[in-house]
Backbone:
């Protein structure tokens, strides 16, 4: 079962730490790495969201995640002048591109929404598996803190 963990992967250790601390300040469980251990961290935590930049760590991560059985949502923070805020999907991997500089408060709200949706989907999947095997469903993962109603964020 997935957790509500967010993994931050950035070649720049200082930038990585800043993003992790900002997310934690918004009550999001976040872990960071600036080396090749990122796939192991994602798998161990069963992370639902990964934040990265298009550096060498981010590019390697993107290719590895395409092979993952249950890839997390990827948020790509790009400083490229040609970057646009867009969403891409190849049917398995969902990538949200956000042009830097990033407004962290709306990003935190977006991540909390994604984690809440993932938690509900995980709970439904567990209940369906339990019903199919005639066993009681395990306790669901608690939803991340935050508003219970969906909100439109601009």
Residues:
């Amino acid at each position: 079962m997935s957790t509500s963990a967010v993994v931050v992967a950035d070649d720049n250790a200082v930038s990585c730490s800043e993003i992790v601390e900002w997310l934690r300040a918004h009550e999001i469980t976040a872990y960071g790495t600036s080396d090749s251990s990122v796939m192991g961290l994602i798998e161990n935590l069963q992370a639902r969201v990964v934040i990265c930049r298009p550096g060498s760590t981010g590019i390697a991560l993107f290719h590895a995640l395409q092979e993952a059985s249950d890839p997390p949502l990827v948020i790509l923070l790009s400083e490229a002048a040609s970057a646009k805020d867009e969403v891409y999907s190849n049917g398995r991997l969902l990538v949200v591109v956000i042009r830097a500089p990033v407004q962290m408060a709306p990003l935190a709200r977006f991540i909390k929404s994604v984690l809440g949706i993932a938690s509900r989907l995980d709970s439904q999947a567990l209940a369906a598996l339990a019903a199919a095997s005639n066993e009681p469903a395990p306790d669901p993962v608690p939803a991340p803190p935050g508003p219970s109603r969906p909100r439109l964020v601009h």
Observations:
- The chain is about 40% helix and 20% strand.
- Confidence is low (pLDDT under 50) at residues 147-154.
- The chain has one domain: 6-133.
